[in-house]
Write a structure and sequence with these properties.
With 333 residues, this protein is α/β, with parallel strands linked by helices. The chain folds into two domains: 150 residues, Medium-chain alcohol dehydrogenases, catalytic domain (Quinone Oxidoreductase, Chain A, domain 1), CATH 3.90.180; 134 residues, Rossmann fold (3-Layer(aba) Sandwich). The chain has eight helices and 17 strands. The strands form four sheets. Strands 3, 6, 7, 8, 9, 16 and 17 form a seven-stranded mixed β-sheet that branches. Strands 12-11-10-13-14-15 form a six-stranded parallel β-sheet, sandwiched between helices. Strands 1-2 form a two-stranded antiparallel sheet.
Length: 333
């Protein structure tokens, strides 16, 4: 993608996407003051919709107990509504530090065409990572954190239950470990093509391999957790990467759960695993995630973009699953 020219006159208003009631989105205009010292003005190029989390946000299903922890950086409004949400934006520096004008950066900002942000909250996108692919950075962070929580190792037989973006990124990272045998498990046969393109095998739940050394669950559905538990081998670990919001989850902990001495481990990107906290910061992890996006095979995860102006009409269908998507970009062009 060619770098876009910086406008000579920086607009003082911006358009932002707000969730205003269950299933309802609208675009609101906001006034922008000039960036403060130490801040940058960012002109958005692309942002990514997190299908799992933003589905729960739009449905008003963020639990009251989790509303503070689930706040996105630079979020406006309060759960359940109205709220300006989102955390995967790629943009161009259009004001502030003159030495950074034209730089392409990633930041954890809601869906908005133009915004001011502290300079330290932006991370440069590597020159060899296309800006559109860089929208995967937040999901790649989640996948990387999941591998740390699971202690994935060379030679492991690994199942990943759930072929959304996070599940497919986990499968890709695991498949790049030497000697691993990775199987993506999903009820949708259409997930076989991206799984195989990313170096993993594919199986439906009924035919998935059992006795796995490590299982990741990323489907977002309680039934998927039962599938994950059923695929784990003796003394194996099941890493739960789904977030259910207010939905109650009943897991089948009879059967082999106790006799096989399985470990069910939660994974959440908000915290770096304890054994890495002395050395790793959130910024280092995000920089690492961006570096992993040099992989051109990941372009298969990016769905056809929608324009910001069309998002209030298009996104409810996408988030409800009535229109297929993986990583759903919003185009600000």
């Amino acid at each position: 993608m060619t770098q876009r020219n910086i406008p000579k006159i920086i607009p003082q208003t911006a358009q932002a996407l707000w969730s205003v009631s269950p299933g309802q989105l609208e675009i609101r205009e906001t006034h922008l003051p000039g960036p403060d010292a130490g801040s940058l003005r960012i002109r958005a190029l692309w942002s990514a919709v997190s299908l799992g989390t933003e589905r729960l946000v739009l449905a008003g299903e963020v639990p009251e107990s989790e509303r503070e922890r689930m706040r996105a950086p630079f979020q406006e409004g309060e759960f359940p509504f109205p709220v300006k949400y989102g955390y995967a934006c790629v943009g161009e520096v259009a004001g502030g530090d003159a030495s950074r004008l034209g730089e392409i950066v990633f930041c954890l900002h809601p869906h908005q065409s133009l915004f001011n942000i502290p300079a330290g909250a932006t991370v440069p996108v590597p020159a060899d990572v296309p800006p559109l692919r860089a929208i995967l950075a937040a999901n790649m962070e989640t996948a990387l954190n999941g591998l740390w929580d699971g202690s994935a190792s060379p030679g492991d037989h690994i199942a990943v239950v759930g072929g959304g973006v996070v599940g497919l990124l986990v499968a890709r990272l695991c498949a790049q470990l030497p000697g691993t045998r990775v199987t993506l498990v999903d009820t949708d046969p259409a997930k076989e093509a991206p799984a195989r393109a990313l170096g993993a095998g594919f199986a439906m739940p009924a035919t998935a391999p059992t006795g796995q050394d490590l299982v990741f669950h990323a489907s977002g559905h309680p039934a998927g957790l039962d599938t994950a538990l059923a695929l784990a081998g003796t003394e194996a670990k099941v890493v739960e990467m789904s977030w259910y919001g207010t939905k109650p989850v009943t897991a089948t902990l009879g059967g082999g759960f106790h006799s096989q001495r399985l470990t069910l481990r939660s994974s959440q990107v908000g915290r770096i695993p304890p054994e890495r906290q002395a050395r790793w910061t959130h910024r280092r992890r995000l920089e690492t995630a961006l570096s992993l996006l040099r992989d051109p095979a990941l372009d298969i995860l990016i769905s056809s973009p929608i324009r910001l102006i069309d998002a209030p009409q298009a996104l409810p269908d996408i988030l409800a699953g009535r229109r297929a998507a993986l990583a759903q970009p919003i185009d600000y062009g």
